[in-house]
Specification:
single chain, hydrolase, long-chain fatty acyl-CoA hydrolase activity, Acyl-CoA thioesterase, Thioestr_dom, HOTDOG_ACOT, Thiol Ester Dehydrase, Chain A, alpha+beta
Length: 134
């Protein structure tokens, strides 16, 4: 799993216990997962369909730098399934895991549409395919 997105836990992200508010973290995850799905499917029209059990493993506090890791685990005809882990950037201690997130690819009519993808596309491969490198 690649960890690309990093967030700095600031005072406005905290709950009354002084730890990272779960709602803030879930917003970050949903946004990052949507961006990942958009890049993988090559379409800006994707929607969150399903998020499985969210397992909060440990707390994060003000000043922590956390990183979000997302990877595709399955490609359906109109969907993509992802898995996610959030961890402390410095200690590598897991903060949260989400086993399954499903995003649906939409056509211009707003209905599910086939995307034709079957495997993860990496940035280096996208540039080579498009003739933008080498």
């Amino acid at each position: 799993m690649n960890f690309h997105t990093r967030k700095w836990v600031k005072p406005e992200d905290l709950n009354p216990n002084g730890t990272l508010f779960g709602g803030s973290l879930l917003r970050w995850i949903d946004e990052e997962a949507a961006i990942y799905a958009i890049v993988q499917l090559g379409n800006q029209r994707v929607v969150t369909k399903y998020i499985s059990e969210i397992n909060f493993v440990s707390a994060s506090r003000q000043g922590d730098i956390i990183e979000l890791g997302i990877t595709a685990t399955e490609f359906g005809r109109t969907s993509i399934t992802l898995t996610c882990e959030v961890r402390n950037k410095i200690t590598r201690k897991s903060i949260l895991t989400v086993e399954k997130m499903v995003f649906v690819n939409l056509g211009e009519d707003g209905l599910p549409a086939p995307h034709g993808r079957t495997e993860i596309k990496y940035v280096k491969d996208q540039f080579t395919e498009d003739g933008l490198s080498e």
